[in-house]
Design a protein that fits this description.
354 residues; alpha+beta; 2 domains; 4 strands; 42% helix; 15% strand; globular; PhnI
């Protein structure tokens, strides 16, 4: 359930909305959707992931409409998503065959297919570059494209998973095959204990800051152990739907950019002979959320006593729209309930003074 805080008479509300137009306009210069979509791509990716709708253009439009507020953009995009007709269910995407643009491993130096740093701020100096204020965007784009054309190999081959060899050797636990249709949390009420498909879907759509905070708490000691990034990859995965007239065939409908993480850690106390894996996958480029999601996936398997290990606590409180909506509802009039609190305090003070 989402809360929307609205108060005041109709005239006050209309005036408030007109004032929003003033703040949103900001300047006479217009902000084009293309600029938001491509120059604020990490912000667009976050909104798409938390909204559960892969559309860069609509995510950019939502951000423009709400002055860059992530939670408001997620609200708008989810509301629009709820109006769309669901014509097909895609087949499981083979992320092992994705067209990789970034791929690293903290577990091994030399991995099959090589380490691919890709586009990341991890290795920058993190100092403000004041020259960007007056940069030539067209020239920068032309130069970057020319450099990519020279450096990109003619044929890109799929990179095998780092954990595949460990799983073949029996050193890492694999999740058992499950042919049960994925639990759709957008069409069904989340119940506990939740199936793993519901857990992963909920974590993927959860607020990035919330997920990262819980993962950080787990790493600081409220968890099993310190995990290792077996593999972090970002790339384009093909999306296919079943062919209507032949179940053995499928139709390619497009590709989406995903970030996927697999973390390795010690198994539980009953099995010291294997490692266990946690998994995370999110829309777009979002390393931190994919890693945080993989940490919590493993923590929730343990069912331990700490908050990051409690399924109901983790899955119930991370939804961006629910979280911000419930907090926003505090702006609604609470005159009667607050007066009752005051009356109770006054009555208690009178009894103490008698």
């Amino acid at each position: 359930m989402g809360y929307v805080a609205v108060s005041g008479g109709s005239e006050a509300i209309e005036a408030s909305i007109r004032l929003l137009d003033y703040y949103r306009s900001g300047t006479a210069k217009d902000l084009e959707l293309e600029a938001i979509e491509h120059k604020l791509s990490l912000l667009v990716d976050r909104v798409m992931g938390e909204a559960g709708l892969y559309s860069r253009t609509y995510a950019a439009l939502a951000l423009k409409q709400c002055e860059g507020s992530v939670e408001e953009a997620v609200f708008l995009l989810r509301a629009y998503r709820s109006t769309l007709t669901r014509n097909y269910y895609s087949l499981p995407a083979d992320t092992g065959a994705m067209r990789v643009v970034r791929r690293i491993s903290s577990a091994f130096k030399d991995i099959a297919g090589g380490q691919i740093l890709g586009a990341t701020y991890d290795y920058t100096h993190r100092l403000i570059n004041f020259s960007i204020e007056s940069e030539n965007a067209a020239a920068l784009r032309t130069e970057a494209l020319a450099r990519l054309d020279r450096e990109t190999p003619e044929e890109i081959t799929p990179c095998p998973r780092v954990s595949d060899t460990l799983k073949k050797d029996g050193l890492v636990d694999s999740y058992p095959e499950d042919d049960t249709p994925p639990y759709d949390v957008t069409a069904n009420l989340l119940e506990f204990p939740a199936p793993r498909s519901a857990r992963l879907q909920t974590l993927s759509r959860a607020d990035t800051g919330y997920i990262s905070g819980l993962a950080y708490a787990a790493l600081r000691g409220y968890s099993l152990s310190h995990p290792t990034v077996g593999e972090l990859r970002c790339g384009y995965a093909e999306i296919c739907v079943p062919y209507l007239f032949d179940d053995a065939e499928c139709l390619f409908v497009g590709e989406i950019l995903l970030t996927e993480a697999e973390l390795l850690t010690e198994a539980d106390d009953t099995d010291k002979l294997k490692l266990a894996a946690g998994y995370g996958a999110v829309f777009g480029r979002n390393d931190s959320k994919a890693i945080a999601m993989a940490i919590l996936d493993r923590e929730l398997d343990s069912g331990g006593p700490y908050p990051p290990q409690q399924e109901e606590f983790v899955l119930t409180h991370g939804d961006s729209m629910e979280m911000n909506g419930f907090i926003s509802h505090l702006k609604l009039p609470h005159y009667v309930t607050f007066q009752s609190k005051l009356d109770a305090v006054r009555k208690t003070r009178e009894q103490c003074n008698e």
